[in-house]
């Protein structure tokens, strides 16, 4: 059964740490919202047993957003 990715675990941060950073950084907040939507699309496609190609494209989109989140977290504030 498809399950959502745990972004906080992937980032090696607690939910509280990320939440605190989100309140101070509107771009980070926006990126995390985009990640949540992209992750939900992946889960939905996997549950619907969409084609492998479609799922891979959605996963690539999710990864692209995650990479932007990582870069934003690493940028000096």
Automatic annotation (TrEMBL):
It comes from the Bacteria. Gene3D superfamilies: 6.10.280.50. This is DUF465 domain-containing protein.
């Amino acid at each position: 059964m498809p399950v959502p990715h745990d972004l906080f675990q992937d980032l090696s941060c607690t939910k509280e740490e990320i939440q605190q950073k989100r309140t101070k950084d509107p771009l980070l907040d926006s990126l995390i919202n985009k990640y949540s939507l992209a992750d939900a699309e992946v889960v939905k496609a996997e549950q619907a047993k969409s084609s492998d190609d479609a799922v891979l494209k959605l996963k690539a989109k999710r990864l692209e957003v995650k990479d932007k989140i990582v870069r934003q977290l690493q940028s000096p504030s």
